[in-house]
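re: that chain from earlier
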Amino acid sequence: MKKYMWLVLAFILTLGLAGNSQAQVNMSAETAGPTGVPGNVMGHMADILAEKKIANLQVAQGQTLTNSVRNVAQGKTDLASAPIILPFLLSRGVGPYGKIGKEKGAKLAENLRALYPYNAGGFFGFAFSNKGWKSWEDFRGKTIWNGPPRGAALSNARSTGILAAGLKDGKDYKGVQQNWGQLMTTLVDGSVDGFILPSTWPHPYPTTMAAAGKVTVFSMPKAKMNSPLAKKMLSVPGNIPIEVARKDMGYEKSVTLISEDNILRGLGTAFTDVVHKKMPFDMVKKIVAAHISSLDKLKKRTAFMKSVGLAEMDPFKSSFCGKSKLKYHAGAAAAWKEAGYKLPACAH
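^ sequence. v structure.
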């Protein structure tokens, strides 16, 4: 009898271990640096999914997201942080995906599905206040740091100068490009006159500058944000309008805002996290439900996470629909709807 009891116990133990194994699925993820918005979102997801025993998310940080998005589309990675522009470019086989070609790119892009929206802040002008600059016109003829040597950030920074005051890199100002790793030194060494930078509020960039002196940040003029050119720029997938009230920026004494109505406006960058369309419905629903239930915790993860468009379902503010054909995974859509959110019909 004892022999059979041990067999029964062994069987029960095996079932228990199997159940635990299923609850702790190993999944891979790729994101950018750990301190930015995408890295914080993915890091939070790793914590929450482990806490709720949904999955062990093994996160590779500091990745080139162009490659990360393609890896998900090819089934090599489970989740990736994705600027909305990348699935669009992949679908057309252009830009960083030019070598893939339109036909193959379109097939790969069709494999991508979104989980939830957020943004990585907006592009604004910066200069030390002791320069006495009062408007975007003061950027004219100056040396301006505007991004890394190539990529979406440089393109958006250049677009910001054009939209704000018709300022063209190389014609109206001398643009300086460096890798991101060099920026923190350039912010304080006086080697350039000003900056066109992406930033959330608060953010390490204005914080670093403020350590060396008072800073002036230049908002996109309200009329420019409502102009036909702005509407054209905002029709590009991934480009969204960013608005931050002065009271929500922080830096009450060290940063001066140049704006006609105390609202900081800029051209922003929409993000989502993507998975392959074949990821099981139930798994995706669990992942997104965990995200939704922990939004308050995510907003407290860093000081700027409260203002990055978490759970923003407006298609204009999240850059879904329009020219972007990226849709939410069916499991994600179910989780959002179950939580009481209304997704745009064109996005699921």
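The chain has two domains: 2-119+270-347, 121-269.
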